[in-house]
Amino acid sequence: MTFVPNTLSLNDHALDGEAQRHAIECLLNCYLREYALPRNEADLNYQAQDVPMSLRQAGARCISISLPGGRLVVRIDSASLLGRCHYIGAPYFKGNQQGWRPLEARELASLLCTPLSGAGRVGEMLQQFANSLQITRAFLRHSRPANEAADSLLASEQHQLWGHALHPTPKSREGISHNDLLACSPEVGACFQLHWFKIDPALFRHQGEDPRSTLQQLSGRDDAYPCHPWEVARILADPLVQRAQQQGLIEYLGPLGQAMFPTSSVRTLYHPQLAYFMKFSMHVRLTNCVRKNAWYELDSAVALTHLLRPVMSELAIRQPDFLLMPEPAASSLDLGALGTLEQAREVTECFGIVYRENLSMADRGAYQPQVAMALFTWDLQGRSVCRHQVRRYADITGLGIEQATLNWLDAYAAKMLGGVLHCLFRQGVALEPHLQNTVVGFAQDGLPNRVWIRDLEGTKLVPEIWPAERLSALDERTRNSVYYSAQKAWQRVAYCALVNNLGEAIFHLANGSDALEQQLWTRTGELLHEQCAFLGHPQQLRELCAGAPFPGKENFMTRLMMRADREAGYTQLPSPLAFIAKSKCA
Fold first, then answer.
1. What CA–CA distances, in Å, run from 464 to 301, 467, 470, 533?
2. How many C-beta neighbours within 10 Å does residue 54 have?
3. pLDDT at 1 exceeding the cut of 80
4. Beta-bridge partners for 453
5. Residue range 210-228: average pLDDT?
6. CA-to-CA distance for 311 and 8, rounded, in angstroms?
7. Cα-flanking dihedrals φ and ψ of residue 335, to 5°?
8. What are the residue boundaries of the Aerobactin siderophore biosynthesis IucA/IucC N-terminal domain, all occurrences included (predicted)?
9. Please, what is the end-to-end C-alpha distance for the chain in angstroms?
10. Of 440, 459, 425, the residue nearest 306 (C-alpha)
11. What is the DSSP secondary structure assignment for residue 182, as one 8-state letter?
């Protein structure tokens, strides 16, 4: 296992300050969007004179948030139409009958979370918040510059230091030691060997394509099976595995074979020469979820790939620059003969691997793909990464930066929305096109010209279009895991595509310009109207185009209330399309 030490000149104090600032920004933006703004407890353009002296600068823009025990004020330099702010100073709090005082990140977290939940839930949330902050600091100290020229996809997978901009604990990873964290995390450019077990061939199970040639390519053996380094301790402690070892069916070999690179999801690993990405089980909570491959998800990934083949073929004709990344294989070990069904399923999940088709070397060379989350974020100097792509396009074409930005967004949004909405309204397939699931390819001039959506775990089917008889090959538990109601499917697709994805894209492309942001949302509205007409004016899309609220997923409240991600609620966000329409009429 290797990682490259940080070569930046910033000192530890400055890095700690950056970690604090981003933790505060994530937390405040979550709280604003999910709680304060819907309850009219926030003012995004606070004009009162009662602010700390350090915020009374000419032209300073502040926001104010009312809290049960006082008021919070923070300086910002921009606020989007979706209420997403960029903060440029510490938050100040004034309690009842008290003066103003600045807050550090953990004190802010306690102030916001404590009134909303019980002590146990708040304690867990604050622990995860502190964990995320500590890990961000470690990543900043050990980060390294991305080498896009060598492999643009890998560089973008391993260049996401900040993570989900609207999650309260974007870098939390529970129960991982500091050394193991650095050894296996993409944010520090990690590259490591898998841990392997010599197995009796009778234990091996796979669905779909046979992945054993890939395992042999990695290990150099034909009798070995791998797991992620963070899962090996759990496996070795399992009573069924210990029983299998005693009977000579399994032998732990330790780390060996070719090294692999962790991607932005942490547990999905990449090697440029392999046919597949490999998605491993890890009983580690990352952000909201424990990232294991449940036994029924091993079934559903391969089943969905089979079921969606006709959809992929239709997309190739109707949306040729929009592609899904199939998951044609899954594998694990079956120790059912040594214990109960429940015990055997635990082992199956620990050893479970989902195999996702890799992008071909030809496509990686032609399109220089990058993960969208690595584009619509800040670099270490506080600059929006996507602006580099836009400037390149502007320089090549001779366009002004504003027109280049509009063209760039138009090219990206048309492909992403065209494919996602076609799948939902024509095929009853709800993709999950959030930033980490979206891969963008580029033309020679830097304009987006291809979009891939990945990770079938988040892909669901609408039962009205996919009744049970179409899924008769799946058992009931697996079938239920791939269903969303029509309403839930729309909420998840609209949130992922418009809020998580395009909301962040427009925020970063606008670069603090209110006028440019409105132009970008205007063009997005035009694209949505075009898609609505093309798809026969489905009701939900028609209402959205008319100014209905956008659904905003409640990442903050979901984590605070310890809900499963599948059960996340949604906040209604005032539509930027309605705001622009109202502005034009005024």
1. 21, 6, 11, 22
2. 13
3. no
4. 324, 438
5. 97
6. 46
7. -110, 30
8. 153-376
9. 61
10. 459
11. H
Return phi, psi of residue 310, to 5°.
Answer: -60, -35
Number of alpha helices (DSSP H) and beta strands (DSSP E) in the chain: 22, 24
The identity of residue 84, as a single letter, is R
Q: What is the C-alpha to C-alpha distance for residues 384 and 377, in angstroms, rounded to an integer?
A: 6
CA atoms within 13 A on the CB side of 266: 28
CA-derived radius of gyration, the chain: 24
CA–CA separation, 317 and 325 (whole Å) = 16
Structural tokens at position 405: 């930005």
Full-model pTM: 0.94
Greatest C-alpha distance within the chain: 79
> From CA 229, how far away is CA 184, in angstroms rounded?
8
CA distance 369 to 365: 8
pLDDT, tens digit (0-9, with 9 covering 90-100), for 79-105: 999 999 999 989 999 998 899 999 999
Cα–Cα distance measured from residue 249 to residue 278, given in angstroms and rounded to the nearest whole number: 24
Residue 37: alpha-carbon gap to chain centroid = 24
**pLDDT of amino acid 97:** 82
User: Which residue ranges form the domains of the chain, and what is each CATH number?
Assistant: 1-151+158-188 (no CATH), 191-314+324-358 (no CATH), 362-585 (1.10.510.40)
Q: Which two tokens stand for residue 118?
A: 């019980």
Q: Report the share of the chain in percent with pLDDT over 90.
A: 81
Q: Which tokens in the block code for residue 163? A: 């993570």
Three-state DSSP class for 305? helix
pLDDT for 245 beyond 70? yes
